[in-house]
Amino acid sequence: MPPKGHAILSASSADRWLHCPPSARLCESYDDKGSDYAAEGTDAHALCEYKLRQALGMEAADPTENLSWYNSEMEECATDYAAYVLEQVEAAKQTCADPVVLIEQRVDFSRWVEGGFGTADCIIIADGTLQIIDYKHGLGVLVSAVENSQAQCYALGALELFDGIYDIDSVRMTIYQPRRDNVSTYKLSKDELYRWADEVLKPTAELAFAGDGNFLCGEWCGFCKAKHECRARAEANLELARYDFKLPPLLTDEEVEEILSRADDLVSWAADIKEYALRQALSGKKWNGWKLVEGRSNRRYTNEAAVSAAVEGAGFDPYEKKVLGVTAMQKLLGKSRFEELLAPYIEKPQGKPTLVPESDKRPAINTAKNDFMEENDYE
Ligand code: SF4
């Protein structure tokens, strides 16, 4: 794997700095702390790279013994990813005799973004279409390929290398996110991509590089290192305080709708502030009116072997045997073995009604009132 490095305006953070240009410079002052999720993703990418090289008949060293997060689910995801890429290569051969496959390819899109580079998981170059495939191991956020600025930056970097050598007229970008059963693809013409690069990417990157532009908060704040202390985010969330915590009967329908549209951001912002304040307090910061105390804790055994010996000695069985939960079982068996063995025994009960924005892809459920209205429509 090539060294990843960190650009101020990286492709992976493009969604954030394109929406909120000043966040780029603001994030510079924070250390990169990393996380378990990031470490797991790095392991998964290393395995994907190995599986793909192997599938393409290239030499590759098996990284498995050095992967701290390796498990059968990761093995299966990486194997399926390699198979998916092979399918795409076969499809590319229909239009081009010699498609090129690049794995973990460093791409440079600094023509539009100062210092802009990134590492694309897989690029397939063929006459006609250039394809970018980006593997996502995360479960938390469902990633769409539609207008995905990270993939578009990689595509621009790939065009810098191959436009002119190959006869490329369109670009196809795929997000492969197996743990969410998500394969999302978006295609646009090369001209449309260049237009976006010139009209949106370049001018916004200039603002971001200079530390200019307007703060704008939204979903992308979740990936911002300044999210705990950001004044713009605080002000946007505190703006709801104008409703003065009135309860629904005193609010208009429009006010309830506005609060609903911002409630998730408000909750996640409040959780970020609590986490930040606790971390600071643990490092010695004194918050006026607040103190650190011990949280509640439960009793626990100091020596499990001694406990079971004592209980067995007294004539009791100290163990409980429980079937693993669905997620843990799938992790143990891998997805296909899980399906093969357990499909007849899995059900998905109806979910609890949840209020979501109209843009959500799930179909609306009928409430009792809707049913009643529909019945009367037939009369
Ligand atoms: S928290 Fe959100 S609004 Fe604040 S700098 Fe970061 S991305 Fe911008």
Rounded to the nearest angstrom, the radius of gyration is 26 Å
> What is the count of β-strands?
5
The total count of helices amounts to 12
What is the molecular shape?
A: globular
Helicity range: 40-55%
Distance between the termini: 68 Å
Described by strand count, sense and barrel closure, the largest sheet is: 5 strands, mixed
Strands side by side in the biggest sheet: 1-2-3-4-5
Bound ligand species: iron/sulfur cluster
In the CATH classification, which architecture of the domain at 14-210 applies? Alpha-Beta Complex
**Mean pLDDT over all positions:** 88
Fill in the CATH topology of the domain at 14-210: Lambda Exonuclease, Chain A
Task: Give the H and E element order.
Answer: HHHHEEEHEEHHHHHHH
Q: Strand content of the residues, in percent?
A: 5-15%
CATH class of the domain at 14-210: Alpha Beta
Relevant terms:
379 residues, alpha+beta, Lambda Exonuclease, Chain A, 5-stranded mixed beta sheet, 43% helix, globular, binds iron/sulfur cluster
What can be said about this structure in brief?
The chain is an alpha+beta fold and 379 residues long.
Please give a structural write-up.
43% of the residues lie in helices and 12% in strands. Among the domains are: 14-210, Lambda Exonuclease, Chain A (Alpha-Beta Complex), CATH 3.90.320; 228-282, no CATH class. It has helices at 14-19, 23-28, 36-55, 72-92, 149-162, 190-210, 231-238, 253-282, 304-313, 326-333, 335-342, 368-377, and strands at 100-108, 117-125, 128-135, 168-177, 182-189. It is built from 12 helices and 5 strands. Mean pLDDT is 88; it is low at 1-5. Strand 3 (128-135), helix 5 (149-162) and strand 4 (168-177) form a beta-alpha-beta unit. It has a 5-stranded mixed β-sheet with strand order 1-2-3-4-5. Iron/sulfur cluster binds next to helix 2 and helix 7. Residues 16, 20, 23, 26, 215, 217, 220-221, 224, 226-227, 230, 232-233 line the site of iron/sulfur cluster (SF4).
